[in-house]
Amino acid sequence: MKTILDQVLAPKMGIAIIVKNGQHLRVTDLEGLQVVDMAIFSERNPREKLSTSYSRTRYVPKPGQPFVPRDRLTEGDTLLSTICTPLMKIVKETPEPKGIHDVHNRMCNRLLYEYYGHPSQDGCHEIISRVMAPYGILPEDVPDTMDLFMNYHHDCAKGHWVLEQGVSKPGDYIEFASLMDVIVALSNCPMDVIAPTNGYRCTPVRLEIFAPGG
Q1: Fewer CB in 10 Å around end: N or C, the chain?
Q2: d(CA 94, CA 119)
Q3: Long-range contacts of range 192-197, CB-CB < 8 Å, 24 or more positions apart?
Q4: What is the domain partition of the chain in residue ranges?
């Protein structure tokens, strides 16, 4: 495949990129422990967008496979839209253990930081809203994101969710194959306070798009 985009996304910044049907998007954590929030929209109709809950629970089963709603997404899984249209497929991820990506939590926002005494800080919601504004998407239209490399899990004994430092190392990546023409909005998560999401240190990530051909 040929490379058609190779770009470093600075800490606390966002971008919206078009990924055409058949192209691959790779997100690489350059220094380790960095979370990237990802929202996906149909390019043809941006009102159709990622549904993390459908992606976890309405996947197309293999023959004879029982219906088992899952709590994580990993290699081979398909990301579905709000009307269950396949958007992208996870084709490769290198962090161990696999599947350490949040698909339950709502992204951080300015109000969260204000609650904890950081009134000047935008969150992933504001960052993604800005990059999607040229496509007519309002802040209230932004869906729950898939938070790449985010170590977020439920503790049944304690009855609450736990946010821990990630497991991704320098050079670890996750790669998606696009199953239709999509707009992918990415926020290089700005959280360096409150929780150990990014190891209290925000770092750059690398974005690559590969297209079929030599």
Answers
A1: C
A2: 36
A3: 193/113, 193/116, 193/118, 193/121, 194/112, 194/113, 194/116, 194/118, 195/163, 196/163, 196/164, 196/165, 197/35, 197/150, 197/163, 197/165, 197/166
A4: 2-58+70-211
The CA distance from 40 to 7, in Å, is 19
User: Taking the C-alpha atoms of 199, 201, 204 and 210 in order, what is their torsion angle to the nearest 10 degrees?
Assistant: 10
Residue for token pair 């977020």: 152
pTM attached to this predicted model: 0.95
Judge whether 135 and 175 are in contact, CB under 8 Å.
Answer: no
pLDDT of residue 67: 83
| Blockwise average pLDDT, block size 10, the chain, 214 residues | 97 98 98 98 97 88 80 93 97 97 96 94 97 97 98 89 94 98 98 95 98 84
At residue 137, the pLDDT reads 97
Residue 213 burial (CB count, 10 A): 7
Q: In angstroms, rounded to a whole number, what is the distance separating the alpha carbons of residues 199 and 180?
A: 34
